[in-house]
Amino acid sequence: MADHLLKNVRYSVLDLATVLDGFTAADTFKTSLELAKQSENLGYTRYWFAEHHNMAGVASSATAVLIGYIAGGTHSIRVGSGGIMLPNHAPLIVAEQFGTLASLYPNRIDLGLGRAPGTDQVTAMAIRGENFNAVHNFPRDIDKLQQFFSADNYRASVRAIPGEGLDIPIWILGSSTDSARLAAEKGLPYAFASHFAPTYFEHAISIYRNNFKPSEFLQEPYVMACVNVVAADTDAEAERLSSSVKRMFLGVITGKRELLKPAVEDMDVYWDQLEKEAVQQMLYYSFIGSPKTIKESLEAFVAKHGVNEIMSTSHIYDHQAKLLSNKIFAGLFKD
């Protein structure tokens, strides 16, 4: 039964455009395109970038630009945002940008939306300027976006050109229960950030499913869970490779963010027990190991939560090891 469930689950990629220690953002973009091309060939459904700002190790700040770069270098895989942080943008600008992308790459662009700024408060102030203290209404801004994309908007005094009349799927992203209620109310697909905020995952998807209202966009609830993945030929090698993502999350917890570091043999050199427990809690929904190990845990995850799609994010320093992990993970959905 679990095998059957796994074969019917879509699988996708979240790329944070992580900058490696000793490399540059330009290097990151080249390897992202290579990973996207491989993902397309392996049957991944979509390839998303997430908007972040003022983070030395994350180069996906100009999210729409990167989406265009990846879409232009691939042929069929869907490319989109996971997500665009709506407080940072006027809905009209988002509609125009994604309308342009959807015009260039028809039926391939996704628009995932988040309500957080994707950065610290000082940077958020720099982004929003005089609008920083203005009340931000996430549901209202989504309504505005939907109106701009609507073919019926052609008589309005403000129009999104291009964008108007185009089919650009909107997703609600979240790491809490608030977003679940909103996605349910609007009848939109829901993507949960369980790769770094596992605490409310079960509660949020339950709220979403129980309160879902069918819409013109979606007739039944659709849940995507984002998880961390580090796959290798052996459990031991996967554990070693996972030290890079553990050090990255340690930097988040301690406020000492750095570029992604190479794998190390012994993490105990870098953290104390409390830090270790904090990192492990954040990485609760992580699949680390050999194909057999990950398949068993992945089947159990799908059987328990019934997700429609799994989006993997892999912070692996060695690019060839990352490509292998991506290949192994895709294979689990086909066996």
From TrEMBL:
Q: Which InterPro entries does the annotation name?
A: Bact_Lucif_Oxidored, CmoO-like, Luciferase-like_dom, Luciferase-like_sf
Highest taxon, organism lineage: Bacteria
Domain Luciferase-like per the UniProt entry, residue ranges: 24-307
One Pfam family name is Bac_luciferase
**GO molecular function terms noted in the UniProt entry:** oxidoreductase activity, acting on paired donors, with incorporation or reduction of molecular oxygen
Q: GO terms for CC? A: cytosol
Which protein family is named in the record? To bacterial alkanal monooxygenase alpha and beta chains.
List, alphabetically, the NCBIfam families matched: oxido_grp_1 (TIGR03558)
Q: What is this protein called?
A: Luciferase-like monooxygenase
Q: Which organism is it from?
A: Pedobacter zeae
